[in-house]
Amino acid sequence: ILKTRFLAFAFALSYLLHPALAGIALVDFHPIAFSVPLVLFAFYFFKKQMWPLYFIFVVLALLTEEAVSLYTVFFGIYIFFFEKNKKIGLLTGIIGLLWFFCTFYFLIPKLNAKGNYFFFGYYSNLGQTQSAIFKTLLFNPLFILQTIFTKAKLIYILKLFLPVLFIPIFSPAILLTSAGLAQNLLTSNHAQTMMWGQYNSGLLPFIYLSAILGVKNIMSLCAKWRISHGAVILGVLLLISGLACNVIYSFFPVHKQVHFVSDDDRLSQQALAKIPHDASVSAFEQALGHVAQREKLFIFPIHYTHTDYVITDNHKEWYLTQEQHDYFLGKLKETHDLQAKTWRLTVFKKKETKK
Predict the structure, then answer these.
(1) Largest Cα–Cα distance of the chain, in whole Å?
(2) pLDDT tens-digit profile, the chain (355 residues)
């Protein structure tokens, strides 16, 4: 598609330097992270017209998380209207739509003790029920615009597209980012508009696919305006932007605040290693992966007064306000004793019940 090795190299390096990729890789574990390469492979096999492999990777991507079904529907729409492959586009859209209804309204509610889809609560700002949410989306466009166009969310959009110089706007393939952007911009969950975490997994591959497809239109403009060496200029700008964004607001590999394992990290790991494998634990998100090999594990503060051990963040959990953190910590001291404390975290053990 790009037809020049230097521009292909610039896009590849830009992708590896993108702050969202670092955030997906570093912040705990979510299966949707696997959808990033799977979607890219699906698009590759689509372009190569290798249909069995294309659908294999579409299905594999769908299995990573239920939200990928919506991205697949938009992928099908794009293929149908802009790639002019109506058969594959229609089939892709139908597969995504079927998986959407299967996961959101059958599988997840059946496997959930409360019989519902928990994450609809992230959109309670749009309505308290699913029908109310859809009603707001359809009939209250002013409220939708007010929800999207906030300072924090505009900065989020800037951070997403600046590493690729907003090239996606030059291609209709920007449609591919619609589902992911809607998912993150319409919510009241501020974590979905951060550069770190799994929430950008559904956006990142489509940002780069639409950027690569937008290059063709930019090259046409360069030819029209008689700009020579357009591909080289664009490649250099991509590299500069990618490196600058990585340094300013990424986590690695060139960010000035890249984290190395410290003595406190080792002390924290030793404290966590002393927790028995059969003990129930409620822990803040960044600690979950270190105590995951157990039957009962919860994100703090879920069930924190009932679990055998509780692990809290000494610098406040990012998803709690300071007031919430202080409240839960106060209640926790009524049911648990201090077990270990490092600069990073504190481990509490449930008090012995008197016989």
Answers:
(1) 87
(2) 777 899 999 999 999 999 999 889 877 778 999 999 999 999 999 999 999 999 999 999 999 999 999 999 999 999 999 999 999 999 999 999 999 999 988 898 888 777 777 788 889 899 988 889 999 999 999 999 999 999 999 999 999 999 999 999 999 989 899 999 999 999 988 889 988 889 999 999 999 999 999 998 898 888 888 888 888 999 999 999 999 998 888 876 665 556 678 899 999 999 999 999 999 999 998 898 899 889 999 999 999 999 999 999 998 877 788 888 899 999 999 999 999 999 999 999 999 876 5
Residue 2 DSSP class = -
CB 47 within 8 A of CB 209: no
SS3 338: strand
CA-to-CA distance for 281 and 294, rounded, in angstroms? 8
With b meaning 16 or more CB within 10 Å and e meaning fewer, what string describes 21-38? Answer: bbbbeebeeeebbbbbeb
**Sheet with strand 345-350: strands edge to edge:** 297-299, 281-283, 309-313, 345-350, 336-341
Instruction: Answer yes or no: are the C-beta atoms of 135 and 127 closer than 8 Å.
Output: yes
Which tokens is 181 given? 């952007």
Continuous segment of H or E residues that includes residue 313: strand 309-313
Report how many helices (DSSP H) and strands (DSSP E) the chain contains, helices first: 16, 5
Strand partners, 309: 281, 349
